[in-house]
Give the backbone structure.
Amino acid sequence: MQITQSHMISTILKSPQWLSVHVLIVVIGLLIYVLTTHSLKQRRAPTSAISWVLTIALIPYVGLPLYLLFGTRKLVHSGSRILGTTPAPDLNSDEAWPRQLAASMGQPPVVSYQTLRIHADGEQALQSLWELIDSAERELVLCTFLLGRDAIGEALMARLIGKARGGVRIRLLIDGMGRMMGGGINLHQLKAAGVQVALYGPILHVPFKSSTNLRNHRKMLVADGVRLWCGGRNFAAEYFEGSRNHAPWRDLSFDLDGPLAAQARDLFERDWAFATGSPQVEKTQEVQIALEPFAQVIASGPDQADDTVHDLLVTACFKACSRITAVTPYFVPSDALLMALSLAARRDVIVDLILPRRSNHTMADFARHRALRELAAAGGRVWLVPYMLHAKAVVIDDGLALSGSVNLDSRSLFLNYELMVAFYAFADIRRFASVIEEHREAATRYQARKPGLLRDLTEGLVLWLAFQL
């Protein structure tokens, strides 16, 4: 009698031997999760931890490989933290808490800067980028998530090649995934001209040397160690000029001069050392009194023992007295950050959140409604603009402005390598607030709608699969 294939599979699945093997695989998977989480100090939000445990327990043949590929969250632990320093005169003032908190998390001290220019649009941002490249006499370092295979990417390469042939040392760091997303621009011309190019986390890499899930999202250009260009813009057409069929995205970037640029360059050096495997030169941080205006670089990501930007934002929500204003393209926050924003709104703090009505990530747009409903119910004001808004900034009262590459979603806050600059000068904080307010004036108020059962379940599933794991 011929035994069909389906009958054989059914027999195997019902056999006690297979059940024993299956249980053993589940136990081994959970043991790997527990041991790696403990030994590597992989602190996770409860929802994320539960998601991993359930996935490994219910579908171990999929969950365990996913965990080995994407489960790493931190590459350092609390014991490796190097404490930062902060000017002593500020530590006893009511406005000093951001510097105190940043110092406790190993961030560099506040330093001065000059001639801050917040770019009004993509055209001004591009002009500033070209000016900083042209001004370099000794060195240029650039870090970006994405380099477009388009007019902007080609123009950037041409300028870098020209500077390199003129004797300027140039190093370009691109995220491995971002390079693919940008169209896989050919970098051989840069290398032939003497530009040093490194990929951060190449897609094809030696197993366990790096994590495929940890991407470098930092964006900066530093000229001669004294001029900084920074913000949310990648080096691609949509961030500056747009294309024939698509308007440019609205974004936020800035440039400045002074010691703050050297802080950004130090962060680049650490990233470069990791990406290339070269030895890292430790920089000794000196206590200094910064002259106003002053600011500091806040690095976030797997190379930080703490969730620096996330913890700073949560603390800021509880410290806020009158207003919290934030702009971000994606809003899928942690439970802690959502609770902090909601409680601030319940304390009669004005909470304004500005988002694009439709971003370039459909899944993020779908998943954000659960958090938006909760924030709106607490009294927060959510505003939707009719264009693609890629800006990232948060202003707390008149005492703190954060601007850089961090989105208000769990990937950006917990997994990506990110860079924000914390500004403390009243006049410049107001300038960032005015930029955000211009977007709010073009927006319409979000109206929360009660979801049906199917919608509610689907949102939960998307959050579980896409934003927790």
About this structure: The first strand starts at residue 111 and ends at 112.
